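To assess whether ligand presence alters the predicted conformation, the chain was also submitted together with glutathione. Input:
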Amino acid sequence: MGLLIDGKWHDQWYDTKKHGGEFVRESAKLRDWVTCDGSPGSDGQRAVPAKAGRFHLYVSLACPWAHRTLIMRKLKGLETVVGASWVSPLMLDQGWTYHEDEGASGDPVNGVEYHRELYTLTDPHYTGRVTVPVLWDKKEERIVNNESAELVRIFNDAFDEMTGNRLDFYPADLRKTIDAVNEDVYEHINNGVYKSGFATEQAVYEKHVTALFEALDRVEARLAENRYLAGGWLTEADIRLFTTLVRFDAVYYGHFKCNFRRIEDYPNLSNYLRELYQWPGVAETVNMEHIKRHYYYSHDTINPTRIVPKGPLLDFGRPHDRERLAGQGVRKKG
Ligand SMILES: N[C@@H](CCC(=O)N[C@@H](CS)C(=O)NCC(=O)O)C(=O)O
C-alpha cells in the first residue's frame, strides 16, 4: 500500500512512528457534492447536478467505509442510476487494483488498472492517500468526492427525483441524535478497530481496544431499549455501525486483536446485526470472501504468512429477536 506525492506513487505503510505508535487517519480531500439541481452542498461547497448515468461509484467490497455507500446505493434504488466497480481484495505494493484475476470487476468506465490513476486523472499533482470509495463524474472526468460519510448523504437526497425513492436515512428531526451516535461510533468503533489493529505500541493498542469495548457496551445498552440507534427508525447511523459489526468476528477480533468479546457474545448487538443483515438488499452487499482475503492478505506487517483463516463459522441468516422492540422501518420524506 502507499500514497501519491505530487502525483507520484510511493509504496509506503502508515507512519505510526511519527505519532508514538498511533494510526492517524488522513481526512478525505475531494469533497464536492452532487445535489439534485447543482446548488451548493450543505457546507456551501461546490456541487454538480445529479443525472442518471453521469456518476460511477468505485468501491472495495472489503472496505467498511465503501460498504456504507454500497448499502445506500442499494436501499435508495440507485443501481441503475449510478454504476459501480470494485477493486481486487488484495491491496499490495501498487495499492488497490482492478485486476480481474484476483476478484476485481475491472473498470468499464476509465479502463484503469490501478485505483490511484483515478486520483491522478482528477489531479496530476495529487498528494495524499488513495482510498475507496470514490464517486467519479464522467462529465467532468474527475472524482467528485472521496468521503463515504458525504457519499451516504449524497445518495440519500440527490437522485430522489429520478428514482422516486423517498426513503430518508437522515431525517431532520433525528439529526442531533444521529450526529451524536455517529461521532461516538466513528471515533471508538468504526475507526477504533483500526486504531487498535494498526497500533505499533502496546500502550496505544490497549488504550484503543479498551475504548472500543466501552463504546460497544454503550451501544449494547442503547439497543436494549431501542430497535435502532436513533430509536424506532432505521437511519444512516445503523448502516455506519453495521459495516463494522459484520466484519468484527471474522476479522477485527483476530487480525486486529479486538478480542475482549465477539459480537456474537452481545445479545442485543448480535441480534441487531442479524436484523440488518436480513434487511432486504443488505446481504447482497456483504462479501465475506473479499473481506477476509483483503485484511489477512494485504496487511503483511500484521499477518506476514498471509494465511487467511477458514473460520469463524458465522450464520447471519438465523432468526433474530428484534421484533420485541417497536420499529417503524425507514422514514419517508414529505
Ligand atoms: N474517509 C474515508 C476513508 C476511506 C478509507 O480509509 N478506505 C481504506 C480502505 S478500508 C483505503 O482505501 N485505504 C487505503 C490507504 O489508506 O492507503 C472514507 O470514509 O471514505
